[in-house]
Amino acid sequence: LAIACARYLTSHLSLECLIFSHVWGIEVFTTSEVEAINGTSVKLTCTFSSKEPVSLQTASVSWDFRSITIFYYQEIPYPIDKGLFKGHVQWSGDMKRKDASITLNNVHPGFNGTYFCQVANPPDVHANIGETVLRVVDKVTLSEISLLVAIIGGSCVVILVFLGIFVAVRMYKKRNKEKDIEMRVEEYRNKQPTVW
Q: Can you tell me which family this protein belongs to (predicted)?
């Protein structure tokens, strides 16, 4: 288009062609990093801004993972029907609200990596590509939680027992010391000669 405009300008010396060569841009916004527990669902957020009104008939969204398109949307969602992501990708966006998000269901470690969100809203088709890094982590099992609670609880009980023994010994020594002082005072008084 730019070359055609340049030729047109040089041959006709008109500035009208510059109007058609103006490049509009879409800005795509994504969360840079998302963490999900193995076996759960996670939403990959992708929103966009466009200078053109969103056309539900022509606007499109593409999500890629490792150079493979895993989801495509234009009027209706087209999730992938084979491979690693079959049955795992669900449309969560709303083009009227400039939302191009998807949800990955039942994620597992094979889903770790970078996801790319691309949006086009003709004639506004030039856009940056949104990137989201997904980290799938193992969930903490109930037995691990129970073990952790038992260790912490047991440590607290041991500390309280030692603290109780320490306080009891100090109190016992203090009472014995007080009794010893009282006995010595009494002995001292008994040894003193009585004066009439």
A: Belongs to the myelin P0 protein family.
Contact 46, 115 (CB under 8 A): no
Alpha-carbon dihedral of residues 137, 113, 41, 32, nearest 10 degrees? 100
Buried b (16+ CB within 10 A) or exposed e, 43-75: ebbbbbebeeebeeeebbbbbbbeeeebbbbee
Give the model confidence (pLDDT) of 144-165 as tens digits.
Answer: 667 777 788 888 888 988 888 8
Other beta carbons less than 10 A from residue 98's beta carbon: 20
Q: What pLDDT band is residue 187 in, cutting at 50, 70 and 90?
A: confident
> What are the sequence ranges of the domains in the chain?
23-137, 141-186
Q: Which pLDDT band, with edges at 50, 70 and 90, does 196 fall under?
A: low
Max CA distance (Å), the chain: 143
Token readout for 95 is: 């083009």
- Domain 23-137: what homologous superfamily? Immunoglobulins (2.60.40.10)
